[in-house]
Structures are given as structure tokens and as C-alpha cells.
């Protein structure tokens, strides 16, 4: 039997959970805040003020990046296209006068390099991981992010040592919410769907995907967007509340 509840008002503990999978971006590591800093960094580093105002640059990039990630999650575009197109489109739209292809490649490389050095986590992320480890759960990450970059983010934040295994879409060529990556994660971690739970901020990639793979789910509702009805076993609005569940 599945439960859909908001733990702001209810108290319920999941039983028989052995393996915890946690999304990285905007669940543990604060991608939204760190990416703003990385975007400003490349804007200044490449003197893009000659092209357009920063707010215009950020507005175009953020919208295009979200569009491309949604396509990537569902396997409609390749990783290489995502990482080149987001800055290529932004530069072209904002009126860059030079070699757009070459500049977008340079910007993307520096953006990813700088992004991975930034340490800001979601409030309560370290405390939650320490709690889960102390409780004896096998704690792993499950992410559509890029190999190398994702591990470096957690190392920069000082929480990498609290993760047992990193399972990435790069490792298997399948992205959340597709069933294959959830089955792959179980295989890699020696886990079972019935005793696994997914914690994540994306109602589609994390929650619907894990639910359809037979896992239990805890939806971290960071943005006030409802999950698809029946896919979240629990809903929290801050990471501290997960301690009431696991």
C-alpha cells in the first residue's frame, strides 16, 4: 500500500528501507544558487558585457538550459548537444558578434570547471547525510549529471565521503525517469526495489521515475510544484523533515 502525505502535518516512518538513493542537484548540492555564481563568473571572465546586459544573458541561458535538460531527461537529445547548444543559443540570441561555436565551447568548459568548485549545499544536506549513515542506511546518489563534475561538486561541498556509490546516467547511457537507470542502480548497489527509496526534487525524473520502477519515494518539494498524484510516498519542504520518515 502506498501513502501520499505531507510531513509538515503528518508523522509516518517508512519501514524496511535499506538503501537510500539521493539526487544531487537541488537536493543535496544547491545547483540553483551555485549556477548563478558560475554564470556570473563566465559572463565577467569572457567580457560579455560588450554583448548584452548580464540579466539578459542569464534570462536567455536559464530558459534554454531548462528546456534542454527536460529533453535530455527523456532521452530526446544527447549530452554533447545539451552542453554545446545552451551557450551557443544564448550567445546567438544575445547578439554575439564573433565565432559563436568556438566561444560557446570555451564558456561551457569554464562554466563546468568553476561550477564544480562551488560548495553551497541545500540547508540541512550534510546533517541529513550524516543522520542516514549513522542510522545504517546504504546511501548512494542517483543523478543525470555529468561524470566527474557531479563527484567534484560533492567533494567541494565536503560531503562526498558520506556517499557510498555514485550512480550516474553517464555510466549506463540511460537518464531518469527511464526505468533502465533505476534497474541499473539496483544492480550496481546490490539493492532491491522493495527496500529502496529515492529522494529528489524533480517530480518527473526523480519521483515518477522511481515510483514506476517500484521504489518508494520522498519528494523534496523545493519549488512548490506538486508531484504527479500517487507517485510520491511522502512530500517534504525541507530536508530536516526526512528524519521523521527514515
Describe the structure.
44% of the residues lie in helices and 11% in strands. The chain has 246 residues and is of the alpha/beta class. It has a 6-stranded parallel beta sheet, sandwiched between helices. Helix 6 (149-156) links the parallel strand 2 (138-143) and strand 3. Helix 1 crosses helix 4. The longest helix is centred in the first third of the chain and has 20 residues, at 54-73. The protein is elongated, with a radius of gyration of 19 Å.
Protein topology:
Elements: E1 19-22, H1 31-45, H2 54-73, H3 79-93, H4 100-115, H5 125-134, E2 138-143, H6 149-156, E3 165-168, H7 169-172, H8 179-189, E4 196-200, H9 203-212, E5 216-220, E6 234-236
Parallel strand pairs: 1-2, 1-4, 2-3, 4-5, 5-6
What order do the SSEs take from the amino end to the carboxyl end, as H and E? EHHHHHEHEHHEHEE
Overall pLDDT metric: 93
Beta-strand fraction estimate: 5-15%
What's the story with the biggest beta sheet?
6 strands, parallel
Query: Strands of the largest sheet, in order across it?
Result: 3-2-1-4-5-6
Head-to-tail CA distance between termini: 17 Å
Number of helices: 9
Helix content: 40-55%
Number of strands: 6
Shape: elongated
Class computed from helices, strands and strand pairing: alpha/beta
Return Rg in Å.
19 Å
Uncertain stretches:
1-10
